[in-house]
Amino acid sequence: MKYRIVLDTNVIVSALRSSQGASFRLLGLVGQGKFEFSVSVPLIFEYEDACNRQGASRLKPQEIGGIIDYLCLAGDRRQIYFLWRPCLKDPKDDLVLELAVESGCDFIVTYNQKDFTGSEKFGVRVLAPKEFLTLIGECS
Fold first, then answer.
1. Positive or negative torsion for Cα 62, 64, 67, 68
2. Are 72 and 37 in contact, with CB atoms under 8 Å apart?
3. Thinking of the domain 4-135, which architecture would CATH place it in?
């Protein structure tokens, strides 16, 4: 079964900070056919903003831009036509959950699982990157 996921911003930032660990491995699998990955304009802007903050990564802005461009290319681009807010603690998490619901995602992959408490009532489960890699048989 091919799962559909949304990657929380903290997974992308973590992958750009270190080439070790589950987030880097997961980012490397984007576009490889192991899972489907959904993106939206607001989430891409959030990725870009977080990745370009000082200290977020050692990459140059043009390198970050290339990665963001690839995520746009590889992802299933979705438009959010509604602006309901599930009212999670952080409004930036709301945009992740909105995308997950709109695109029929199976999982939100994040390091902040507690931030998405209540997402299960929308049919979306929350997993850490390593848990998702294990689920798809890619954890080494």
1. negative
2. no
3. 3-Layer(aba) Sandwich (3.40)
As a 3-state breakdown, the chain gives helix, strand, coil percent values, each rounded to 5, of 50, 15, 35
pTM of whole model > 0.85? yes
40 CB neighbour count, 10 Å cutoff: 21
**In Å, how far are 5, 42, 48, 95, 99 from 83, measured between CA atoms?**
20, 12, 21, 9, 11
Cα distance between residue 98 and residue 83, in whole Å? 8
Backbone angles phi, psi at 88, to 5 degrees: -70, 170
Q: Over the stretch 1-29, which tens digit does the pLDDT of each residue have? A: 799 999 999 999 999 998 899 999 999 99
**Could you tell me which residues are beta bridge partners of residue 36?**
4
- Tell me how far the alpha carbon of residue 40 is from its chain's centroid: 10
Residue spans of the domains in the chain: they are 4-135
